[in-house]
Amino acid sequence: MPGMPWEPSLPTSKLGDDADFGLLISAISTKLINSPLAQSHHHIEEALALLGRGDRKDRCYVFRFSDDYHTMSNTYEWTNEGIQGHQHELQNIPTRRMAYFYETIRDQGLFVVNNVHELGSEAGEFRSELVREQIGSMMAVGMYLEQRLVGFVGCDLVNRYTEWTDWDIRQLRLVADMIVNTIARHEAEQRLRLTEQKLLEANAKLAQLAREDGLTGLVNRRGLDEALDFELRRAIRGQQQLALLMVDVDFFKGINDHYGHVYGDEVLTAVAAILQTHFKRSGEVVARFGGDEFLVVCPQAIPSELVEQAEKVRLQVQQLKLHDTLSVSVSMGLYVTIPAPGTTRDSLLRQVDAAAYQAKQNGRNRLEIAPLHIK
Ligand SMILES: Nc1nc2c(ncn2[C@@H]2O[C@H](COP(=O)(O)OP(=O)(O)OP(=O)(O)O)[C@@H](O)[C@H]2O)c(=O)[nH]1
């Protein structure tokens, strides 16, 4: 893995126009330092524009290496007026095609060409590429993140030539440092956002699982309690009818004993599915109350319709054909009320449970309606 080949200290040779240099670096630094994530792309391109402004360069660009260093891609580009850009063509370029350039930047962190025609045959395809882009002079410096080479920042002169100085190299290294820091900061921000997003999704999933019955996928007892409390408060506030339907599989223990728990589970899943097809109006909640008991909460219910629906459920359960000799039925209790202030969840449950118990007592495979409160 290529690391930093030079000491991070700056060259000490006499530099060019120090004031201009300082202004440029401070302008680029100001642009990048507070650049928000959404504008980072734009700001990095602006930084490249500042680097090349005043005809000092014709093209300035950033390349990133793939993690395995097999390819490199031009991720940002600025071009001087009238100069053709090449960013779109320079994506996923195999580094072995540009071996001469890649090995130099990897080993030295710097690649300087004052005159493309001075490049020898060892430059191979890299030289042809410079000629194709009509580059006269070019220079690139490595970009490092935590001592690891991740790309480079470079600049070209098109159809003209220069003798690059220490000053130019120093400038480009500073700009490369600022750009790579900006990229790193934004990548860290993006990772953080992604992690936060995943965490929120995982929490939402956990919250959902905590309210879901694993076998039937229905709301479980915990979810039911929450939903029932919510609907009870609403019914009290609005003085609206609230109905509860309890559904209990008949002789379920016998089903388990004779056909095994797998069939028992299938019966529970099938009854749950039937209930879900009949009670899916907004606000209606079908829950597994426990064992072989289900509870349906129906806000703003119309009792006659509920009785009709319950009867359909009863008949459909009876028609279940899960095994040649297995017949299934359910006993149901219905309780409809306009809850008075102070009514509790438990008192509602006692009423509907009593109705379901009555259905068992009266022969099973039937619906009993809690006598009080029904309209
Ligand atoms: N297969 C299966 N059985 C369960 C599950 N949860 C509870 N049971 C069984 O359900 C049975 C409930 O039986 P009981 O409460 O005696 O009710 P029953 O046999 O239906 O009798 P009645 O309600 O009076 O008709 C018990 O044997 C529990 O072991 C489950 O998730 N899967």
Automatic annotation (TrEMBL):
Keyword flag Coiled coil: yes
Gene3D superfamilies, alphabetized: 3.30.450.40, 3.30.70.270
Record bears the keyword Ribonucleoprotein: no
Entry GO MF terms: diguanylate cyclase activity
Residue ranges occupied by any GGDEF domain in the UniProt entry: 240-372
Catalytic activity: 2 GTP = 3',3'-c-di-GMP + 2 diphosphate
Gene Ontology terms: cellular component: plasma membrane
Record keywords: Coiled coil
This protein's name: diguanylate cyclase
Protein source organism: Pseudidiomarina indica
